[in-house]
């Protein structure tokens, strides 16, 4: 292959079925669940070979833009674009937007459309399939990757594989909705059906022309969203009004089920959508008792169970088919085999004011300049751990109800207090009296970490008067 | 009644079956498990009516002396004595020591011997029983409180109730070891058997004379341990060599099974030894689905289960007969009905260097001057929350490997740094450079709370050079 493929990474999902680890402010794709790095980072790395791929186009939404930017930066990967979807409009539009951007650069661009929250064993088989699909896409095919089933799985949609089109791809006879167990067993036994992986390969131009013909509203919305897009720092903000006009429809329904250019490439590398905790369990290859432990755990007289822990030591004693998912502030305990029901639990927690927060945020909040974790809260004080990325600065701000103490524990901080500027290095501290104007910056080359002790009568995040801000928040 | 009864509170136990809440550094009796206050505090309160009781004698060991003192002080209860057992020698000796102390004050002293880790519904029935028992004790009886059984319990020993002795007490026909279920059912059906509560009433003099006659080694050890005891602050340190000579034997075996002065008082107030998590569940009166939640929890489609949580929100989804006990650093998940097996788990955790700490200490450590919690640990820093009781001071100390920042968040601190003394009030901070001699004291009338940020290459508790200490630790 000579032509570089453009990875299109879809990273805007809000998945809740891996609660309490996955939360709306930091969903599944940004978590380290299987293997090293987050699923999103693993996705980027799988498409980072520069003999085969150009820089990626990433689709996400405004809430996740800083996580996306930070996680890409951690890998030293510079995306072609990070596009922000103003509202959730499913895959047909997201891919259309990426295609419009890609043909702008290169009218023969080939897109490899990737979910950012799947686990894939990307060995030689995988890349061979990528190359076969890219060739078929260059020949005008819209290619879906179909995974040869290894078990009667009821959690996935299937694709019926039709006649051979040459070059390793086949006609798509039809899409099959998630089957019940009997039907899944039948599909496995009879053969000729593969799992619909949600991964595609296509020429941007082919996709756009089929989209224009078969899903004209989606096509028009994509063109208009791109035409009116605004650059904001490193991000492309797609136009909100344009998005509103588009139907909420997946690429399978909008395009693949209608076009005669669709093809399926049956593959047999290991793949999982990690759609629920039992899928995570399978992806971890359970031990001889059927147990998986991610984090500190003791499984005693227990079988077919999984522990995922953020820190606490979890003991599972004399149980079978149990999932214990322990984050710092929430713990889920249920049947591993029924873990698809977590979505219902999240709904219940969301509907209650006192527990909604548990479905939304983690104890660490990410900000354009870095982030902070709440470490301890008392009656009239609060302790936070702040981290500031090299070269970044927080807004110039003041508070009406609190004073702050900062102790630098790593790196160097530049602190502006009213009209003074001082440098603080490791082990130095500063006091910011109530009402003073202050700003924190990291002028160094390494991460700045500090402990902030706030004292005062009111310590809410809304007691921040922003006087000046690099990130458009003042 | 005119004579005041002396409460003798046995608070030296190390119970592990309520792990992870109960740990050797802060076992069950000092935890709030059922109702308000710790079980030890509830025990003190039940015996605090000064029309009926004098100040208590408390038996514990050196490790728990500060918790005992603090928890008594919280209630405004000043013990007659806090006696420290140099080694664990069971109840016969502990009671003998208390009896020696009591007869020194009043040769007719009546002792009410109380376990400090039981739950009791102390209504009018309870106090009526106390008065009846005290009268029988004054008449020379050694009285065991026997609880009328309400279910075929296999976790308790039983007492066979013999002929009526008048004054509401009966002869003890014999002690029955913990029965199996069939035998427990038989005892319940046939009647005439009560649970051995481990609570006793006796004249100190009667006990000592029976002890001298029936358990002379125990008697001699008690006399000698008291004769050589040392006063240490508010504590009585019993003599270690004397303790070593005594057999490890319970009062049931040593005295009650042999003496002809034993009597049982059958009572029917609600009582539990809270010996395992299922007993805690029973004591909490489960809801209509059989569930109990202590701490934030959601029980969804679940039955006959219990959650105890120190803070994290626990979701139990679609399960039955499950115990989830969630402390900050360890979580137990097992069958509630088999929760007696927690002791085995604790043994397994103890045998592994990496997990032993989880069975020993909590995140909060208690010291004579107050205590501290570890809040956050980083690579070269650590954040602790310290609390110092009014009027107390820490040792004069220095560190070779760390500097410290202190931020006062409540109360007033007096800080000595080398030869300077400064006062810090709320919201003020101080820096203690590596190698400086320093001391923290609370000169105020309210608790002093501060946040300590340590930075340095080594942050272990053993990098403390104590130059001077109020508590005999320099």
TrEMBL record, chains A, B:
A biological process from GO: GDP-mannose biosynthetic process
Top-level enzyme category = transferase
Q: Give EC number(s), comma-separated.
A: 2.7.7.13
Q: Where is the Nucleotidyl transferase domain?
A: 7-287
Catalytic activity as recorded in UniProt: alpha-D-mannose 1-phosphate + GTP + H(+) = GDP-alpha-D-mannose + diphosphate
Domain named Mannose-6-phosphate isomerase type II C-terminal: residues: 358-469
Q: Has UniProt tagged this entry with the keyword Nucleotidyltransferase?
A: yes
The record's GO molecular-function terms, alphabetically, read: GTP binding; mannose-1-phosphate guanylyltransferase (GTP) activity
Identify the keywords attached in UniProt to this record, alphabetized.
Answer: GTP-binding, Nucleotide-binding, Nucleotidyltransferase, Transferase
Q: Which family does it belong to?
A: Belongs to the mannose-6-phosphate isomerase type 2 family.
Q: What is this protein called in UniProt?
A: mannose-1-phosphate guanylyltransferase
Q: What is the protein's species of origin? A: Aquamicrobium aerolatum DSM 21857
